[in-house]
Amino acid sequence: MATVLVNDIPVDIGDEKLNCIQAAERAGVTIPHYCWHPALSVVASCRMCLVMVGEKKPDGTVAMQPKVVPGCQTPVKDGTVIQTLDPKSTGAQQSTLESLLLNHPLDCPVCDKAGECLLQDYSFQFGKATSRMVDEKNTPPNKPNIGPNISLFTDRCIMCSRCVRFTREVAGTAELHVVQRGNHSEIDVFPGHPIDNKLASNVVDLCPVGALASNDFLYKQRVWNLKTVKSVCTGCSTGCSINLDTNKSVVYRLRPRFNPRAQGHFMCDEGRLGYHNVNSALRFTKPLERTNSGTQAIDWQQSVAKIDQSVRSAAQTDAGKIWFVLSPFLTTEEAWLLASYARSISPFCRIVSGPVPSHGVDDNYPKDRKGNPSTNPVKFTIRAEKCPNRRGIEAVVAHFQKSPATFADLLAACDRGEVAVAFVTSGYSTAFPAWGTETAERLGKAGFLIVHDMLPSALSDAAAIVIPAAAFSEKDGTYINHAGLAQTTEAGCVPQRGARTDGQIYLDLLGRRGLVRAIEIRKEIGKAVPALAALATGELGEHGVFVTARA
Amino acid sequence: MTAIAEKNVTWVKPPRLNLAEQIYLPSVAQGMITTLKHLVKTVTGLNATSTQQYPEQQPVLPPHYRGVHRLNRDEQGRVKCVSCYMCSTACPAHCIDIVAAPSPWPDREKYPETFVIDELRCIYCGMCEQACPVDAIELTTIFSLTGMSREDMMFDKEKLLSVFDQTVKLGTDPVRTRGGRLSVAAEPADAGLTGSSSAQS
Amino acid sequence: MLFDLIPFSLLVTVFTIAVIFVGVLTAVAYLTLLERKVSAWVQDRVGPNRTGFDFGQPWLKFLRGFFGLGQPLADGVKFLLKEDVVPGYVDRVFYYLAPMIAVGTALLALAVVSVGDTPVPPVLQTLSANSSSADSPRRVFPATKSELAAMNSTTNLSDVRAGYAQYNNLSTIKFAIAPNVDIGFLFVFAIGGLAVYGIVLGGWSSNNKYSLLGSLRSSAQVISYEIPMGLSVLGVLVMVGSLNLERVVDWQARHGWLIAYQPLAFVLFLTAIFAECNRLPFDLPECEQELVGGYHTEYSSMKFALFFLGEYTHMITTSFLTAALFMGGWHLPWLNDWLSPSMTGNFDLSYLFALLIKLAVFVAKMFVVIALFMLVRWTILRFKFDQLMALAWKGLMPLGLMSLLGVVISRQFMPPGMGQWGFQCAFGLVSLVIVGVVSLLLPTEAPKTVLSISRGRSHSATSAPELASRAS
Asked: Average pLDDT in the A303-327 region?
């Protein structure tokens, strides 16, 4: 039992090892800080977190240290007293901010960080309104493209060195350095060694000011226009928690959201930049039907009726020739609805998991300085399994399909001509496809191929009916990652013009009325499937819940 | 929203009417006299109306009149706007649409690739002008704005710049805002001509 | 047996209808111009002053202007040519019916109202020989069988027939579509009461909540204000003893204007017709600030114009009625004899001249009331709905009863002439004061009003007591 007094508020910190910033946060007190980050080493270089620290003696007297100390570097123990409101602390905050702003260009109107900039926030909260700077400001030239996706606005930098420490400690490749000394210090890369590791864009999130900017997002939107929802990255089976930033139903950026159960603080560039197909103009927006003369758009009611009719008429001859493929890009709820539909047709319909795209091997970080795998403790992993919900789909399939069948069985049946209807859900990323043209051709041999996909592909070319799929940013649902962590994702956009969410289509197929509500279906699944019982609560919280004991 | 504490609320009773007010008629008569007075004065010409006979008689507008917008040019003839979205953020009618891009000029980072104001949606409040940090957008004294279609009233960058050319050439609307330069970084000291117009120096 | 006495000539009636209809439509058109002009003048503006009769032709430029006299014509053309928008989901039958009812009832009510000199029909012999004064009611038609028998025995029907033949003579010019209607102004009020159906149906069938609210208000308002209106004209009926408008005017020509007898009733009547016509300060059915346009929000083009027409026709009708009931109709004081050449049936110039003078007098009186309508519009603010209802039920109703009481008492106990006049006048004024005092003494349930709210630290400088002291 250790109790810390923050501005006279007692906080019980148990036996955790905390610094002043963390302890104050428990008390609801913000100690401003730039260079300190919970995932990085402590350097105490920005001096923003200077506070008065003292100790309460057992006899009740308080002995304060004579001067302010950096809160990030000062551990707390039982009896530690932190004062953030006394004149020395506030004076230190004001002076530090004035110092940091000496050479800052104050070009907030054209800075992409404006609106989520800690320099702005702290200046407003803790700073003073004026500067005593009379000299010409330092205006070092900008360094666009210090990495393929990163620009450095050198003059905005406050030398917190978070980015430098990130490349050294988390990415391991150490591209970024502080060069020069004193007020000429700059962040830079060595010539010919741009910052291009797969975690590089995290430095943009880490940068507390607008110095590092993502080229992908540069000048696209002002951040106060963005609407943020809590989502999950679908790039790989790590299932990074993300913030999805959208405006008027267009996705503009993905940012990692801290989740100790999933990935920690960061995310990889593959996932971060992998959202572009969501905004693609090539996406299907209307159900398409293949006729002798080509394809034609049909309306939703028609498409649902046609699918239902074809499946039912096939079920009358031999339901064993009807195959449903549940893609690992579906949410668990959608898979559940589609599988329920399959079962409502006939107990003999075959439900199989879609192929899992696996590319390369799990990519662990930190690397060594040359970018090769190292033996250091793993801080971040990019999975080889490039889909978000393999485990969720497998659990649903296992629940409905007692005699297991595989995707390979389906292909074999296709080759034998024993497939009357194949309902193939897809949604695979174009960067990591799950099948090639050859597989698509084999699936095309099915008597009636229904493809549910976002973008045109060899498979959709072979389909009798194509229904547009919704992107991950457009649907609510649950993904279960490689470790069995079920996380909910929230729709940040409405589906593109004319499109519907996958769950809605399956609900219509099932003949259930109303609009799909992921939370209700989640509760339904939790009740019905013992393996997914953890979903029964509906709300899974910000960090998700493990559906099984942690692997 | 938190409830308002009772101690912060002052309750008053509306005043009671007296007999004459209760009967209404005296005050009605009083009002009628006022109305009638105006009527008689106007009809007999004792009371000069301030009506202007518009198309023949053009109004004399104050320089701060809020009419059609323009985008100001700097001394090199380039658009002054740095595409900061402050105007579109301040706009209560959401009528300004900007697409920003990296600027082709070395002295600034950002410029508007497109800049469209929906003049039909605009309420001519002038907030954009107040919000602009580089004095790039101003409202002119052009008040009679017509178009044959809604598309005609979507003023793009070229149109807004042409309004600048037109009003400056005619001399009806000199550049009147003088906020200052954006920053040293946006406009380096040696490129002193940018951002600050002659009206400013 | 007696029904052939009813004066009726199809040709004359059709001709009168045509003349009055055209006259009223023209009047309505120019009243809209007048309304705009008056509102402009009251607000120190100019008003319409450009639309003349140049029709956009340069060579007719000299016809431009003229106080905007071409404006009604332009408005009419505009109304006819504008797109007639019928919103989806309206109840088509009633949606189309409503403006017809509005304008139809307004025009129908005008049928019995004279717009100029209309001679008094001959009077049948009094039934009861013991009637006390010459002003006692004279029934034209028997009410019961026994009365009929009595009448047949005492009345010289041939005389009556001769009188009516004279009255019915084509050369006797009558400025009314249906002259000599014994239910007279009761008919006007009955039809005027129907006019609310136009509003209610229009509001309801529009399938628009604003329209519906407007029409609901209208129905409540019109029903409420018909009571004080009825009470105020009841005094007239008691005094004159007939509902026949010609007889009312004739009575006033002989005894003096009823406005002098019953000023209170006149004020009540005036107030009530303001409400009946949905004019400010009682234009709640269409108050723009709250209800967009009220019951005619969804109407456009000519259908809207019909509502408009109905409203203004209603105004004209009620104004004529006011002039006839209280302001002596087409008579000018002290000039009665001079302006009443004997009805010889000969068409001479003095008769024609007198007719024209009387027409002008009557129209001028009507116009005074209309001008009052227009001036009040810019003088008195719109009432709130609760105030509107309170005024009708707590103010006008008791006053109407008091006024009637005064008339009845004087009619019973006072000698005709000055005595009745003085008593009725005094009684009206006293009752006005009494009602005022009573309403002063009645406890009001006026709600407490929040004067100010100060909250948060930023406003703590102005404390509540400070505000209270500032307010007092």
From this structure: 91
Torsion of CA C85, C88, C89, C94, to 10 degrees: 20
- Asked if C379 has any chain B CB less than 8 Å from its own CB, the reply is yes
pLDDT at res. C168:
61
In this prediction, residue A211 carries a pLDDT of 94
- The distance of C322 to chain B (nearest Cα, Å) reads 19
A107 close contact with B: CB closer than 8 A: yes
**C64 or B168, greater pLDDT:** B168
User: Is cis: bond before C281, omega within 30 of 0?
Assistant: yes
Q: Are residues A204 and A302 in the same domain?
A: no
Instruction: Answer whether B185 touches C (CB < 8 Å).
Output: no
Q: 3-class SS at B79?
A: strand
- pLDDT attached to residue B88: 93
Q: Which CATH number describes the domain made up of B69-170? A: 3.30.70.3270
Nearest alpha-carbon partner for C245 in C175, C315, C196: C175
Contacts of B184 in chain A (CB under 8 A): 105, 136-137, 139
Q: Which of A279, A309, A343 is the last residue of a domain?
A: A279
Nearest to C197 by CA among C309, C99, C287: C99
Tell me which residues of chain B have a C-beta less than 8 Å from any C-beta of chain A: 82-86, 89, 100-102, 108-110, 133-134, 182-186, 188-189
- A410 and A269 in one domain? no
| Residue stretches of chain C with pLDDT short of 70 | 1-9, 121-173, 334-348, 416-418, 443-472
Whether residue C472 lies inside any domain: the answer is: no
Residues in B closer than 8 angstroms to A218, CB to CB, are 102
Q: Which domain holds residue C43?
A: 1-81
pLDDT over threshold 80, residue A497: no
- Is a pLDDT exceeding 60 seen at residue A227? yes
CA–CA dist B171, B194 (Å, integer): 21
pLDDT in tens, A130-162: 888 888 888 888 898 899 999 999 999 999 999
**Rounded Cα distance, A219 and B184, in Å:** 19
Q: How many domains does chain C have?
A: 2
For chain B, domain boundaries: 69-170
Top residue of A101, A117, A218, A219 to mutate, by most chain B CBs within 10 Å, is A219
C154 touches chain B (CB under 8 A): no
Q: Which residues of B touch C449 (CB under 8 A)?
A: 11-14
Q: Which residues of C touch B1 (CB under 8 A)?
A: none
Cα–Cα dist C320/C313, whole Å: 11
User: Which residue among A237, A258, A279 closes a domain?
Assistant: A279
- Residue C448 sits at the chain B interface (C-beta within 8 Å): yes
CATH code of the domain containing A117: 2.20.25.90
The answer to whether residue C469 sits within a structural domain is no
Does A225 contact B at CB distance below 8 Å?
Answer: yes
Query: Where do the DSSP E strands lie in C130-218?
Result: none
**Does B183 contact A225 at a Cβ distance shorter than 8 Å?**
no
What was the pLDDT predicted at C457?
A: 43
Same domain, C372 and C223: yes
| Residue A458: band (very low, low, confident or very high) from pLDDT cuts 50, 70, 90 | confident
Closest residue on chain C to B51 (Cα): C45
C77 and C110 co-located in one domain: no
Classify strands C449-453 and B9-12 as parallel, antiparallel or unpaired. Answer: antiparallel
Burial of A482 (0-12, 13-18, 19+ CB in 10 A): buried
What dihedral do alpha carbons C358, C362, C363, C365 form, nearest 10°?
140
**What is d(CA B176, CA B63) in angstroms, rounded to the nearest whole number?**
9
Of C65, C81, C97, the residue at which a domain comes to its end is: C81
Nearest to A107 among B86, B100, B182 (CB): B182
Q: Do B36 and C46 touch (CB under 8 A)?
A: no
Chain A CA closest to residue B188: A139
A132's tokens? 């005593």
| Closest-CA residue of chain A to B182 | A107
What value of ipTM does the predicted structure carry? 0.80
